[in-house]
Design brief:
Helix content: 40-55%
Distance between the termini: 32 Å
Order of helices and strands: EHEHEEHEHHEEHHEHHE
Structural class: alpha/beta
Number of helices: 9
Mean pLDDT: 89
Radius of gyration: 18 Å
C-alpha cells in the first residue's frame, strides 16, 4: 500500500438520489474483519497486473453506474505506477482517498470493490481497493492534496461511474523521500519511483526544482527529506535523463 503498511496491519456530485455533504469522520474501506478477540484478521493479498486491475475497476465502475452515481477518487502508489506510468508490472492494491468524497460514497465504493472481488476471474484479496492511506493523512494535508489532484486531473482510469486520478506528482515524490530517509522502510523501487514522479512534475511545471522548494513541499505535506536523499535522487535523475532534477 502507498503508506507502506502491510495488510496484516491492517467525486463528484451524484446523479439521482441526494448524498450527504463530505464529512471529516472518515470510515475505513473495507471495514476490518475481527476475530473472536476483536483483533484484526490477517487478509491475504495478491499481485495484481494491469489487465486484472483494469477488469476489476471496470466492474466497479459498472456497479457504481448502476446506482446512478459518478465518483472520482485519488490514488497514489502502485496503481499509478502499474496503470499510468507502466514502469511496474503489478501491485497488490489500489489506495484511494479524497475529501471530495462523503461516507455514503465510500460505502458504495466498498460495496463495488466487494462485488468486483466476487466477479473477478483471478483472486484480488479482500483489501485490494482500500483507503488505508487516507487514515494517515492529517485533515489539512488531505484537503490540500485532494484539491491539487483534482486540478492536476492526471487520469489513471476512467469508465462511466468511476474515475481515478493520480495524486499530485510532488506529493507522491515527497512520500517516496519520506521512506528513503528511513533505511528500515525502503523498498527496492522507491528511488526509481521518486525519480519518475519528479520527472512527471518537471515535464508539467518545468525544472530543475530548487532544493529549497523540495524542502517546502515536504514541510507542507508533513513528510521528511534530507540532503543525502535529494543528492541520491538527483544522481539517479541525471543518470536516467542526463540533466539535473534538483538544483541548489
Amino acid at each position: 500500500m502507498g503508506c507502506g503498511m502491510s495488510t496484516s496491519q491492517r467525486a463528484e456530485p451524484a446523479r439521482g438520489s441526494a448524498i450527504s455533504r463530505p464529512q471529516e469522520l472518515i470510515i475505513q474501506i473495507p471495514r476490518p474483519e475481527l476475530d473472536y478477540n476483536r483483533r484484526p484478521i490477517r487478509v491475504e493479498d495478491y499481485e495484481l497486473d494491469r489487465r486484472t486491475l483494469r477488469a476489476a475497476l471496470t466492474t466497479m465502475a459498472d456497479y457504481i453506474d448502476s446506482h446512478r452515481q459518478e465518483i472520482t477518487v485519488i490514488t497514489v502508489g502502485g496503481a499509478v505506477n502499474t496503470m499510468l506510468l507502466q514502469n511496474r508490472e503489478s501491485t497488490h492494491d489500489v489506495d484511494f482517498f479524497g475529501t471530495n468524497l462523503d461516507n455514503d460514497q465510500r460505502v458504495l465504493l466498498g460495496e463495488a470493490a466487494k462485488y468486483a472481488e466476487r466477479r473477478s476471474a483471478t483472486p484480488l484479496g479482500a483489501e485490494w481497493f482500500n483507503n488505508q492511506t487516507m487514515l494517515w493523512l492529517p485533515p489539512n494535508v488531505h484537503r490540500t492534496v485532494t484539491d491539487e489532484a483534482l486540478r492536476q486531473d492526471q487520469v489513471v482510469f476512467y469508465k462511466k461511474g468511476l474515475k481515478l486520478v493520480a495524486a499530485p506528482w510532488n506529493y507522491a515524490f515527497c512520500g517516496k523521500m519520506n521512506r528513503l530517509v528511513r533505511p528500515d522502510q525502503v523498498r527496492r523501487y522507491d528511488l526509481s519511483d521518486a525519480v519518475s514522479y519528479l520527472r512527471n512534475h518537471i515535464q508539467k511545471h518545468g525544472g530543475p526544482v530548487p532544493r529549497v522548494r523540495v524542502t517546502e513541499w515536504c514541510r507542507r505535506y508533513q513528510k521528511d527529506t534530507n540532503d543525502n536523499v535529494m543528492r541520491a535522487i538527483n544522481d539517479e535523475y541525471r543518470r536516467r535523463y542526463r540533466a539535473n532534477g534538483i538544483s541548489r
